[in-house]
Amino acid sequence: MTASCFNLLQHWYPVAPLEDIPTDRPTPMVIAGIAIVIWKPRKGDRETEFCAALDRCPHRLAPLSEGRLDDTSGDLMCSYHGWQFDDGGRCTRIPQAENPEILEKTPAQFCLTSLPVRVAQDLIWVWPDADHPDLAETTPLPLSPQLAQRDAAGADDREIACTSFMRDLPYDWQTLVENVSDPSHVHFAHHGLQGNRDTAGPNPLTIHQSTPNYIEARSSNGFLTSTIRLEPPCRLEYTLEFASGNSLGLTTYSIPTEPGKSRIVAQFSRNFAQNLARLTPRWWEHTKLRNTVLDSDMVFLYYQERLMRGYSAEAWKSVYTMPTGSDRLVIEFRRWFDAHADERLRSLTTDAPIAPEPLSRQELLDRYHQHTEICSSCRAALDRVQWGQRAALLVLALMLTVAATASEAIGVAGRGAAFGIAIVAIAAYGGLKYWLEPRFYFVDYRHPDH
């Protein structure tokens, strides 16, 4: 990739953690404004690899992500007229066809526009350039070197624990990349979560390498060495190495989706306290920490982006005031963007229209639509929380009925026990309904309170 040939579409993008892509139905995704459908065909007893295609049926352009996997053939079925497509994108059935042989005579006319797709490091990767799928074969995936070490050690390796997370965000790609390129905000924006503002101080970064393909920055304070690697357009990876030999890794993938919107896919790795990481429920980590961290950035980034849209793409040079060494990676990223961003990337970011009215806090911090409904762990946990509420109400009703109608049979002690269980049921219902369930929908984050 050089300044003259950067093409936003000719890169691999990790659309989601593998465990969050359902295998019983198609999944929609947007990359760089292109609607894509991902599915895993079923062929009898054998399941094939994942498939991806442009999210439109060749018949009448209905979204295939609204379709289903046919129970008999295992192929992807369009729910509009029932056309079916196999794992190669070939149309296998047109229910309305008077002459079924038409599928054999002119098969290319009825095919999907398939896209290359891979599975690596527990992520689903898609190549969105339908016009040049051949380039996908020679373009390496921007994989994490830290997780490559884990993969090389084999499935039984217990040295590196890794968790994953993703969320759709109401601000654009360049705002997201700029944010994750800035370690100095952690002590303040994420005070009490990942940093402490009382211990904040100078954190000068040194740019060790800067090319159109790769930017690397480093910092060290004696007991902690930080290396930050940016591989445009999506991978930004932190490696934090402590003097003790412990290390933390954060690999973020910033995906441009629609104008003014983006998705972050993140993987968190470490070589210590592995059992704690593995025993912590994924949904609890998401609701307690990962979503809260993004919430604590959300208002800053959203309104910063709205202000920046009033200026030209290179206005950061005069609008921003960045006098310290901690801003060097942000500056280097901005220079990369000015020199290499292609027309499509600019149309999704600096040239994208901005809504006349800002989003409300409920819309900005909407955990349900941004995360819960696309996360298999949180979606399942929410179902269990709501089931628990119904169970608590059922127990409450049962215990009150027993205490009221069977007092002579169970005696005073039995009636007291029934009332005690009823109180526990009320407390359980209240905790699930008013404390835990909201964490999957909306939690306001106001910095003066932290």
Outline the structure in words.
By secondary structure, the protein is of the alpha+beta class. It contains 14 helices and 20 strands.
Question: What percent of residues are in strands?
Answer: 15-25%
Main sheet attributes: strand count, strand direction, barrel closure: 7 strands, antiparallel
Q: Specify the CATH class of the largest domain.
A: Alpha Beta
Number of helices: 14
Parts with pLDDT < 50 across at least 5 consecutive residues = none
| CATH fold label of the largest domain | Naphthalene 1,2-dioxygenase Alpha Subunit, Chain A, domain 1
Task: Tally the beta strands.
Answer: 20
Mean pLDDT: 91
Secondary-structure arrangement, i.e. CATH architecture of the largest domain: Alpha-Beta Complex
* CATH homologous superfamily (4th level) name of the largest domain: Naphthalene 1,2-dioxygenase Alpha Subunit, Chain A, domain 1
Class from helix and strand fractions: alpha+beta
Structural domain count: 3
Q: Name the helicity range.
A: 25-40%
Spatial extent as radius of gyration: 26 Å
Q: Which of globular, elongated, flat, extended, rod-shaped describes the shape?
A: globular
Termini separation (Å)? 44 Å
- With strands numbered from the N-terminus, the spatial order across the biggest sheet is 14-20-19-18-17-16-15
Quaternary assembly: single chain
